[in-house]
Amino acid sequence: MLDAAQELTYRHGVGVDALLKAANVARRSLYEHFGGKDGLIAEVLRRSTAEDEADYRQTMDAAGDDPRDRLLALFERLAEVIGKPDFRGCRYLAADFTLTDPDHPGHAITRHYRERVHQLLEDELRRLDHPQPVHAADQHQLLIDGTLAAGATRPDTHPAASARELAEHILNTQPR
């Protein structure tokens, strides 16, 4: 059921009937395992954030030990992600926009995910001895979010390449 929900929420949003049909499960299973649609959405987001954070870490690790290379590698990876034919934008931005209840558990999951990504960026910027690691991490996170949004709405503008150029400017700030 989680596999079907993860795929359907990304491609089409979640319709309970479509989800149950795709997962080939009874409605009762949804309530037994997740307590309902909100619980399922929260679990899908939890699972997706773990996968995406692991992908960021793997991308950075593959780039070597230099913090600059590790940070810039993220934008190369985003270019790959955006280039996939099934790319539909950032799952977390979409969730935050469509989950209208501010107390929906999905919001806490996306917020915590962004905090972990921010910390990942900040740690690399500290290793680089950047003079403003927290602010630069904010800027990088904005570039990541913008890249994913533009990748869904204007992929022909090559947003990951543009974001990488801007990231280089941030990284070129003179050390303390």
From TrEMBL:
Record SUPFAM superfamilies: Homeodomain-like (SSF46689), Tetracyclin repressor-like, C-terminal domain (SSF48498)
GO MF terms held by the record: DNA binding
PROSITE patterns: HTH_TETR_2
Keyword line: DNA-binding, Transcription, Transcription regulation
DNA-binding region: 15-34
Domain HTH tetR-type per the UniProt entry, residue ranges: 1-52
Pfam families in the record: TetR_N
The protein's name in its UniProt record: TetR/AcrR family transcriptional regulator
Organism: Actinomadura rudentiformis
